[in-house]
Write a structure and sequence with these properties.
rod-shaped; five-stranded mixed β-sheet; single chain
């Protein structure tokens, strides 16, 4: 009996072993099911409402997700997310949480639950003040946003508010009333009557004008004895009440050029007396130019 029991026991054990093998328990040939992970797409400033483009695994077909959004895909799925350059009045600054990021593009390989965030910032604005001198007002200035966008110009004095880093080109007329353009001051750079500005702080630029002085030469006699020395007075007159004119003048006629003589005078004018040595001018008609 004892052997029978043993035999039965052995038989039972073998039967169980056959049954387990037949059920596939412990087999090394089975494939585990794929693992799903969740991609969360967030945004900051604003925290919602940003429409993000999403392309899966290099596909040319793009779908859109609006933050905050979640997408569940199998492990190893690759996405490229593209954020818009602006969200409301705010501008894109960066991505965080991406596998890699370049500009507004965020690449993600989904090997775990992942959260990426498109970050926006409120732009800093600066004020450009445009002034003029002589006259102090009424000069019409045109504005260009390079390379070719015309902006709203203005008449001095006026202001223009723009985001930090904005580039502007301001063009002044060559004359303002009876005065002539002389220079720009305060520009990032200036060429002739064009002022270029990169707005990285509150700035003031000024277009400067000056009255063209009147130059008279005396004597103006049509007949001069060239064998005698000649004293010539040059008067340079600016606008009435203007600043005292400074500098020097020279006289020229044909091959003759006088030495430079310093102007002396009072408010708004200056004079200089130049002596032309005898025999310096050719016989005939001479035009003296100061």
């Amino acid at each position: 009996m004892a052997r029978v029991r043993v035999g039965l026991a052995i038989a039972t054990a073998c039967a169980c072993g056959v049954l387990m093998a037949g059920c596939g328990s412990g087999s090394g040939n089975s494939t585990p099911p794929p693992t799903d992970y969740t991609l969360t797409i967030d945004s900051s400033n604003p925290t919602s409402g940003v429409v993000v483009g999403m392309t899966e695994n290099g596909s040319t077909v793009s779908q859109q997700e609006t933050t905050p959004a979640t997408v569940t895909m199998v492990s190893g799925t690759t996405f490229v997310l593209t954020a818009p350059s602006t969200a409301g009045s705010n501008t894109f600054s960066s991505w965080t949480g991406c596998t890699s990021a370049s500009g507004m593009n965020c690449s993600v390989t989904l090997d775990g639950n992942t959260t990426v965030t498109a970050n926006y910032v409120t732009p800093t604005n600066y004020v450009l003040t445009v002034d003029s001198v002589n006259p102090s007002s009424g000069v019409a200035i045109s504005v260009l946003y390079p390379p070719s966008t015309n902006g709203p110009g203005g008449t001095t004095p006026f202001t223009s508010t723009n985001a930090a880093g904005t580039m502007l080109q301001l063009t002044a007329p060559l004359t303002a009333g009876s005065n002539n353009f002389t220079s720009w001051t305060g520009c990032t750079s200036a060429v002739s009557n064009v002022c270029s500005v990169t707005l990285n702080a509150n700035m003031t630029v000024t277009v400067n004008y000056a009255a063209t002085p009147t130059v008279t030469v005396a004597p103006a006699s049509p007949s001069i004895n060239t064998e005698q020395s000649l004293a010539v007075t040059v008067t340079v007159a600016g606008p009435s009440g203007g600043p005292t004119l400074t500098g020097s003048v020279t006289l020229t006629s044909g091959t003759y050029t006088s030495a430079a003589t310093t102007l002396a005078g009072s408010s708004g004018s200056g004079t200089a007396t130049i002596t032309i040595p005898a025999g310096s001018l050719a016989v005939g008609s001479n035009t003296l130019t100061a």
